[in-house]
User: Fold this.
Amino acid sequence: MLEDDDAPPELVDVSTLPVEQDAVEEPAQSRVPITIVTGYLGAGKTTLLNYILTEKHGKKIAVIMNEFGDSTDIEKPLTVNQDGQEVTEWMEVGNGCICCSVKDTGVMALESLMGRRGTFDYILLETTGLADPGNIAPIFWMDESLGSSIYLDGIVTLVDAKNISKLLDEPSPEETVHDDHDDHRHDSPTLSMAHMQISHADVIILNKADLVSETELEAVRDRISAINGVARVHVTDHSKTPQIEGVVLDLHAYDAVDFDITKGHSHIDPAISTISITHAPISSSQVPAVDAWLRSVLWECTLPNSPQDKPPRFDIHRLKGLLVVPDGPDKIIQAVREIFEIREAQASSESRECKIVLIGRGLGEAEVWQRSFDECLQASLE
Ligand SMILES: Nc1nc2c(ncn2[C@@H]2O[C@H](COP(=O)(O)OP(=O)(O)OP(=O)(O)O)[C@@H](O)[C@H]2O)c(=O)[nH]1
Assistant:
């Protein structure tokens, strides 16, 4: 059981125990889900992990806690580890779970963990409070060896209901995010790490509800939805979610077909917003046009057919989409920053329209995005 980050008690070192042989020799195992738990310093991440590890859920969970996903480029941890300094130690914790509690960088810790494959069926990764999840999520798409053994189930962001408004309003200089794009490209205020953690979330746990009034809680909830209108929000006291499966674990956030956008919030965050665009069903021959539109938007930060005099200057953090394709399988689109994929939906959607939701900085008016998308699809028919 984990008490805090520095000194997890009651741990039994199992690093010398043999790994289950059949687990290693069995090549055709299904991929293991991984949930990223993020959230600002002191928001309740460790409290959530303790709660999950002690609840009954029938899963054997491997936990990685440490410096994973520091807001440096993902290449950095890879090179840092080339000198072979692997210090990973796996410990047994309550509920048959195992835990890596020493400082190590992410990819190495995961590779070490996969050597124990078969001893766990779920991975929880707690980032540091200052980690940018947008740097971590693409690892599971970009790293072939990891991507074939692990899949990203979702990103869960803990939010401290008492402190979040202050963090969003007054990002201190050392917490301000400097992404790959110049700040001066944007007229919008600089981003805090709290913005980044909320904008990338699939689920937001609005924690420490006991420390605020109902009115304050509603205001915070409204504010969060204005930044990320698609994440599901759960209000908690000491990170106790109503249940674990489907709330924190087994979200399938990256293969879900249906998603809703929260409407009706009164707040408009000056830095990040969520917009959605829709379209009538398309033919399979139009899918490449959507692919080209996404490449322009995500890779070149250019909105096709945007007004010449005032092109929007934007960065996309997260994008989800559903393409309803009557003459072929429906398609799901998933993107974190510039990494994206379009793949076949596992099941046909109930929805009768295509939908794309974008979360990002400097998006401006939804109509401009809608027009751009419509015109690209129209051009693909001509
Ligand atoms: N009042 C109150 N305190 C809470 C709640 N959730 C967590 N705490 C306390 O807040 C403190 C920080 O919680 P942690 O779970 O360690 O937070 P963390 O996000 O892991 O913190 P870092 O590792 O520093 O980033 C602890 O003292 C918790 O007991 C809550 O809902 N209400």
Q: What stands out?
A: The longest helix spans residues 366-381. The two ends are 62 Å apart (CA to CA). The chain has two domains: 12-235, 272-381.
